[in-house]
Design the sequence.
């Protein structure tokens, strides 16, 4: 698997515990907001969101529970979860695959550590937290985070056509029709260039997780930072 030593410092809790005065017993409170990579222990929470977001709608979902566990075992550093008081409210799961013109079927299940394209399998926001801008914020952070991986050149995803405008707002461009179908569902492929090595060139606030996600406005300049 690719080295992410340089990338890891950027994934850290958005709120760190305050210092504890001597003599005052530690209170085990959960951080109000936290963004961190997912692990296999988060798989059930991930799947619960997917169940509501996808299975209840179309009977299908991007990743079944065993596939969630599979990717969170193989490449947890390509996932990102947003937690509010310990509860998963939004997440992204990605894996690497080799460059090619169109997403191959195997991209749905495989992780190719030597690949330079991140396949974003799924972005989903818990139902009660939608329409608050969390999806675009998490996506923006994820795309900035990917710049810390020296070999990553692009991110690709497949989405149903009604979500094309949504991903366009995050800077994705349409690649074309996706050869993959799932049941009756058809998809469009979209991509986003990753201009990498941000952690080498600068240590800017643009790629550091700030104290609170909502303190970070998404602007045109933020969406694409030239390096
Ligand atoms: C799509 C999703 C990630 C958006 O996250 P969010 O945090 O709610 O995003 P926002 O707060 O910006 O607001 C919702 C936006 O999502 C898009 N959207 C969500 N559902 C949509 C739908 N059924 N049709 C069209 N656009 C939709 C719209 O752009 C909408 O913005 P608008 O209300 O101004 O039109 C979220 O709705 C979700 O998790 N949906 C279920 C899972 C899913 O479809 N994931 C994408 C798989 S490729």
Sequence:
């Amino acid at each position: 698997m690719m080295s992410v030593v340089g990338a890891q410092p950027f994934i850290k809790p958005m709120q760190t515990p305050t210092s504890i005065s001597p003599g005052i017993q530690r209170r085990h409170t959960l951080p109000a907001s936290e963004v961190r990579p997912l692990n296999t222990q988060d798989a059930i929470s991930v799947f619960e969101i997917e169940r509501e977001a996808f299975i209840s709608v179309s009977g299908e979902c991007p990743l079944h529970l065993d596939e969630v566990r599979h990717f969170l075992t193989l490449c947890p550093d390509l996932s990102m979860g947003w937690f509010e008081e310990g509860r998963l409210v939004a997440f992204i799961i990605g894996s690497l695959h080799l460059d090619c013109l169109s997403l191959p079927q195997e991209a749905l299940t495989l992780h190719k550590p030597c690949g330079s394209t991140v396949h974003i399998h799924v972005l989903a926001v818990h139902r009660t937290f939608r329409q608050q801008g969390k999806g675009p914020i998490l996506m923006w952070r994820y795309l900035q985070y990917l710049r810390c991986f020296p070999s990553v050149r692009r991110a690709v995803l497949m989405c149903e056509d009604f979500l094309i405008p949504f991903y366009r707002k995050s800077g994705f461009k349409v690649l074309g029709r996706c050869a993959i179908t799932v049941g009756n569902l058809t998809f469009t492929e979209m991509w986003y260039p990753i201009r990498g090595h941000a952690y080498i060139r600068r240590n800017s606030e643009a790629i550091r997780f700030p104290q609170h996600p909502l303190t970070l406005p998404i602007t045109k300049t933020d969406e694409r930072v030239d390096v």
